[in-house]
Amino acid sequence: MHNLEKLGWKNEQDLNEECIARVITVQKNSYRISDGKIEYLAHLSGKFLNETLSPLDFPSVGDWVEVQKLLEEKKAVIKRVLPRKSQFIRQTAGNRTDAQVVAANIDSVFIVNSLNHDLNVRRIERYMLLAYESGATPIVLLTKKDQVTEAEVESAISTVSEVAIGVPILTISSLNGDGIEEFMDQLPIGKTAALLGSSGVGKSTLINALFGEKVQETKDIREDDSKGRHTTTHREMFILPNGAMLIDTPGMREIQLWDGESGVESTFQDIEAFEKECRFSDCSHKNEPGCRVQEAIENGELPEERYKSYLKLQREVAFEKRKQDQKAKLEEKSRWKKISKTQRENYKYKKM
Fold first, then answer.
1. pLDDT at 196 over 70
2. Quick one: which of 7, 108, 289, 340 is 20 to 30 A from 142 by CA?
3. Which CATH number fits domain 87-248: 3.40.1180.10, 3.90.550.10, 3.40.30.10, 3.40.50.300?
């Protein structure tokens, strides 16, 4: 097997493979890349920095990049990011309207939640929406199976299945190995997956269990509310013993949406189906006669909390779209101001 193929490479663009590498670690402005044989510490070229406008265009873990290697120093310069087949995007934490690519070129997304009292179906819905938008396949992974009873496991699966419609739901214990084999069945050789979830749900513990040694730092959760403390501080891709790739990410307390119109449809396909059965095509699902959505809520087919979550996420997606449109208009206005200023200065210079 070619070295790049060990990292999941398929040369579909007939590129010079000597200049190709994959990003395996991102830590602030520092990148670690691999060509399947050697790891390099990499930085962005000046041309890349000058010509790149959107945060979405910067390298992320899982990206394939074209580089110039400095073999003796084991360093490299990243010249460009190759087109992605998938990307998990969220809005950066805080009030800024900027996007962040959490992981790129992934085949599946493991939405990780623990089986203790931190289990949160609303958070799972939000992760699923972003997973569908990413182009990767979502899988729900419920951890810490050893800490609950079998009845609690079955209850959690039943609860999660109401929001993760048609999505595989796996349960595991990283401590005793229960469910690890089923988890690995979802990670065939050459494929890439990402672990996404809050702090303390057991992502790093799972990585350590898969390697049989401590490769990631872990910390205990708080006993009063099962909340975790941040231990993973950067995104990193690991090559597992079976030849699959697994990306570990820092815990995300805020899951702000960036884009999600098609993701809403996939995540809430049950509600979309009810809406199509309403008597009127423009039904607002409030007081109209023959509203199938309200009927489903009244007879218990559709939990009211799920419908409220659906409306909330729809509003949030629409709000983010308006913010992004406004930001794009301001950026375009600023760009033309700079162009006009440069043209005026050039005109004055020529008249001198």
1. yes
2. 7
3. 3.40.50.300
